[in-house]
Amino acid sequence: MKVLIVDDDPDVVEALTLAFDLLQPQCAVFEAHSGESAVKIFYRERPDLVVLDIMLPDMDGYQVLHRIRHVSDVPVIMLTVKEEEIDKVRALGIGADDYIVKPFGVLELLARIKAIQRRLGMRPEVTESAPLVCGDLRIDLVERQVSVADREVKLTPTEYGVLVCLARDAGRVVTSKTLLTSVWGPEYGDDLNCLKVCIQRLRGKLEKDHSRRGYIVTERGVGYRLVTPD
After folding, report:
1. Which of 14, 22, 121, 164 has its CA 20 to 30 A from that of 224?
2. d(CA 81, CA 104)
3. 80 sits in which H/E element
4. In order of start, what are the domains of the chain with their CATH numbers?
5. At residue 149, what are phi and psi to the nearest 5 degrees?
6. Partners of 100 in beta bridges
C-alpha cells in the first residue's frame, strides 16, 4: 500500500513515517510539505491512502482534497488543530473519509487507518448474482457498480457500503448505529456527523430532482430508509 503524508510540520511527518515503518512496514510512504507538492506527488504516485493536514503554507488541505476528489475516491484522513464542528463537517462534506484533531496519538491514527482499510476490503456477501433494485436505482453487487436510470453513479467505498446496507433492508428503517458500526466499525457507533454527511453526499449523487422525495428518507432520531422516490 502507498501512503501519502501531507503536513508542513516535519516533526509530524517524521513521527508518522516512523510509525508506518514500524507498525506497517509493507507500506511505501511518500511525504509532502505543501499543497502543491502534495498534488504533484499524488498524480505521480497514485497513493492508496492520503493523510492530509488542513493548514498548509500555500493551498490549504480543503483545496488539495478538492483536487484529489476530481480524479480519485482514494481514502483521505484530514489532520488539523481545529476542533470546531463546522471544520469537521466541511472536510467530510468535501469528501474526507475521516478527521482527527491534533495533538493525536499515532496509535489512534493507525486505528482509524485500519478502519478505513476494513471498509476498502469490505465486500457485501453475494449469495446470488441478482442486483439490488429500488425503483430506477440498481446496485450490481458482483461488479460493485451503482446506476440510476442507466446513469452510472460513482461512489466512494464508504458511500457504497452505506447504500448497500440500506438497500438490503429497502423499505425498512436501518438505525444510525447499525449503519455506523457496519460501515465505519464499532468504534464509530456514536459519530453521527460522519453518517449525516455521507447521507448528504449520497443524496447529491443519487437524486437529481430535489423537488420530490428521494431515495433516502430520514427517520428522525432513529436512522434512514431506502424507498422508491415519489
Report:
1. 121
2. 10
3. strand 76-80
4. 2-121 (3.40.50.2300), 132-226 (1.10.10.10)
5. 50, 45
6. 79
Q: CA-CA distance, 60 to 82, in Å (whole number)?
A: 13
Q: How many CB atoms lie within 10 A of CB 184?
A: 24
* Residue 69, CA distances (Å) to 5, 45, 76 in order: 17, 16, 10
Helices of type H across the chain:
10-23, 35-45, 61-71, 85-94, 106-121, 157-168, 176-179, 192-206
pTM of this prediction?
0.72
Backbone phi and psi for residue 185, each to the nearest 5 degrees, phi listed first: 120, 160
What residue has cell string 467530510? 92
Separation between Cα atoms, residue 16 and residue 12, nearest integer Å:
6
Q: In whole angstroms, what is the distance from residue 204 CA to residue 97 CA? A: 17
Q: Is 221 exposed, middle or buried (0-12, 13-18, 19+ CB in 10 A)?
A: exposed
Assess contact for 225 and 167: CB atoms under 8 A.
Answer: no
CA distance 63 to 72: 14
